[in-house]
Structure formats: C-alpha cells, structure tokens
Design a protein that fits this description.
single chain, Aldehyde Dehydrogenase, Chain A, domain 1, Aldehyde Dehydrogenase, Chain A, domain 2, six-stranded mixed beta sheet, binds nicotinamide-adenine-dinucleotide
Length: about 475
Amino acid sequence: MTPSTEINFDNFVQIINGQIRTTAATRHGLNPANRQPKAKVAIATQGDLDDAVTAAKAAFKKWSRVPYEERKKAVLAYADAIDQLRTEFRDLLISEQGKPIPQADAETDAAIEWIRGMAGIELPEDVVEENETRTIVTRYTPIGVVGAIVPWNFPLLLATGKIAPALLTGNVIIVKPSPFTPYCGLKLVELAQQFFPPGVVQSLSGDDNLGPWLTSHPGIDKISFTGSTATGKLVVQSASKTLKRVTLELGGNDPAIVLPDVNVDKVAEKVAFFAFLNSGQICLNLKRIYVHENIYESFKAALVRHGESYKVGDGSESGISHGPLQNEMQYNRVKTFFDDIKDQGWNPITGGEIQPSSGYFIHPTIIDRPADDSRIVVEEPFGPIVPLLSWRDEEEVIERANNTSMGLGASVWSNDLSKAGEIGRRLEAGNVWINTHFDLSPIAPFGGHKESGVGTEWGINGLKGFCNVQTLFLNKHVVS
Ligand code: NAD
C-alpha cells in the first residue's frame, strides 16, 4: 500500500505486512440501533496470525532502532490524518457502536488527543548513579511484538490508546478489534500504512478463536488487553505459558459517595450522567450510588427527574442522549438484571421495563436501596441499570464502597473539598475523583486496583508498560 492510497469507509480489510489479506470465510457486525448487517470483514486464520507475527518480527528489527524523535514525528502525522477523517470515523463509530453523536464526537476527539498527548511525553534514560568509576543508567527498551486486544465499548479510543504508546516506544503492534465492533480498528490500521513501514502496525479481524490464539502465540511478546475481568483471567493464564508481558484494563464497580452538604439538583444531574453515559457500557460508569440519608429522598427525586429527561434512540439522530446496548449478548445479560426486579423484589424508581424495539434499547433504570449483597450491587451489569443506596456513617460508607473485588474508579461529592479529599484517599481504586468522575488524560496513568486490572496504560507509566527496563553499568576504566 502506498501513501497515496485513498481511504474509503465502505469496505474493511485486515492488513498483514502492509498488504490487504482476504480470507475465504467472512462475517459482519450489526448496527445495534436497527440490527442491520454492516460490511463484511475477514475471519483471520492461524496462518494469518503466523504471517503477521513473522512480518512484525522483521519490522521490529528496524522500527525499534528508529530514533524516538522520528517515531514521534510519524505518530503525530498519523494523528493529523485521523483528524482529517474525523467525521468519517465519528459516523462509523456511531453505526457500529451505537453511541449518540455528542459522545461519538467526544470519543473521536479523545482518540486523536490521546495520540498527540502521549507523543508529548518524554521517556529519557535516567542516570541513577554518576561517580569517577562508573555511570549507572536506566533505559526503557521496546519489548517487541505487541498484541492489542480491544473491547466493543470504545473501539476507536481504546485502539489509538494502545497503538500510539506501542509505536512511540519502538514496539510493533498487531491490533485485534472486538468481533462486535471491528470497523474503526480495521480502518485505523489501514490508514496507519501510510505512515509506518510494513509490519509495524497490522490488524487481524477474527471470531472468538483469535484472542486465545494471540495470547498463546510464542512470537508475541506483550499483550495489551482491555475487556472484562473474566476474560482478563483467561488472558493471564494463556500468556503465562510463554511469560508474555501483560497489561490488563478490566471491569469496574465504581462507587459514588454523596455527602449531605451538596447542591442536590446539580450533583444528581452529574451522578445520573456518569451512571448512564454510553448506556452504562463504560468500565468507569458509576455502578453504586451512596447518598447520605439526610438528603436521600430529595436526591432520589432529582435523579429520577434527570433520568426521565433522557432520550433513548438511534445515536445517529440528533437529540438522542442514550443509544442502544451494543450487542445481543450484552442485551441479554442486562435483561437478567431486569428479570431480577420481579424475582428479587427490587424497587425500580424509574425505568424498570424493557420494551420490544428494532434495536437493543433499554431505558435508564434506578433501583431503590437493594440489599448490599444483591447482584445489582455486587456485579457489573454493564448496562443502564444502577442501585441507589443510603448511608449514615462515614466509616461505614467507606467500608461498603471498598467492599468489592473491583477497584477501577470511585468519586466523592461534597462542598467540603478537604473532607472529600480525605475520603477519596481511603478508597481502593486506581482512579479517584472529587466532584466529578470519568475525567481522564493521555498524560495521566490509567489502571485498576484489585481485579480491575494489572499495570497501567497512558502517561509515562503507560509508556513504560510497553518497555523492558535495562540497567546499563558504564564502567569508566578499561581493564588492563
Ligand atoms: P470481553 O472481555 O468480552 O472482550 C474484550 C476483547 O477480548 C474482545 O476483543 C474479545 O474478542 C477478546 N477476547 C474474548 N475472549 C478472549 C480470550 N479468551 N482471550 C483473548 N481475548 C479474548 O469484554 P467486552 O465485553 O468487549 O468489554 C466489556 C468489558 O470490558 C467490561 O467488563 C468493561 O468494564 C471492560 N472494560 C474495561 C476498560 C478499562 O480500561 N478498564 C475499558 C473498557 C471496557
């Protein structure tokens, strides 16, 4: 593929060693708003994976030796090219993922900003000792061939969030999008051929076999995985056989702790926003809302008011605030929580029923004070249904917020910033916010505690995650 190749958004191909690779068998994704099939994509074979790994290894030899500044220049030019196609990527994202226009705009902008932001981070060698006899230097060297496994909720941002740091640090990368949302990832890799030598950025489009093939392949050196905790455990198991490096960005069960001194209406609006954004399909959605008993009833009424103002529908239409669930599997899983409304006697204060529709639509639903050990509190539904809980004592609410195997995000809401900061510091999560939630940056590390992940991505820590550490002892005397 030459730099002059036109990029069109009608057909989608996998790229191995700079070339389009077709397969005998194909499959397709669905637009979740109307269940209509989208374009055909390849189903990669094990032979395709072997070829991609061979090409990646050859490309790594040269790419890893390209100076950092030159790699950075190529990465920034790539960001500019995505920017020029931002409307096409945005519309593709809406049609494959389902999110409404403003949220698709935000993800597309973030996908570009994340590349540029990470390209601005320096990763110099550190001198840790310097004296007359020796210099000790810590260096960060690329690991090799990275397998990037991407989920279906942020197919654009989570792909560029892996491609950029891998390439900046001198690795080569094979991108595997989710079979539910292959289109943005494949197009990103096709476009990348105009900026990087063959074999540096490749894609494989597969079915459910491809992930396990990738994580067990002896030629892959690192897996950068974003997805569910259950799959993350399988990834570690499989990668352990060849001691691959792994970074895991997994599920969450984020609590919000709301103190009694807040502006009830304004905070309820924000809490509802972060609970239902992307129809509850974000690792960092608020999944447990703890409100102080003194304001519980008024906060509940405000949450319901905001929840009922949402417009659920096809994300491509203007005015829609919440799109469909992305796929049938997820839709059916979320439905089981709605079954529990009757089975467990939960009390929905808004929503609560799923109406038949042409797409996978579910109206935001809030459950009033279910038991702390109920599924809706303990599990991650990954859909638009959230428990509202009350608390009285600060120690007790911190204990309840931390009483989970997850540890991705958490937020504290109060007018007393110092108290909120104190509570925030006691929460067991990789990302803690005061008076906001889900506020991210390409220059800040992102990762989960406990079963929400291993390692971090983004920021300087994220770049280091794509590197081996090398300690270089430079003796200042010759042996004579
Ligand atoms: P998933 O784990 O089902 O799939 C994620 C990716 O892994 C897909 O590309 C899938 O094809 C692949 N995969 C599936 N089985 C595999 C296996 N055995 N080996 C290797 N790869 C395999 O997750 P999902 O349903 O796509 O995404 C939703 C989950 O992801 C939620 O739990 C959410 O919280 C989490 N998530 C986490 C973050 C984060 O940054 N922490 C971000 C987004 C989503």
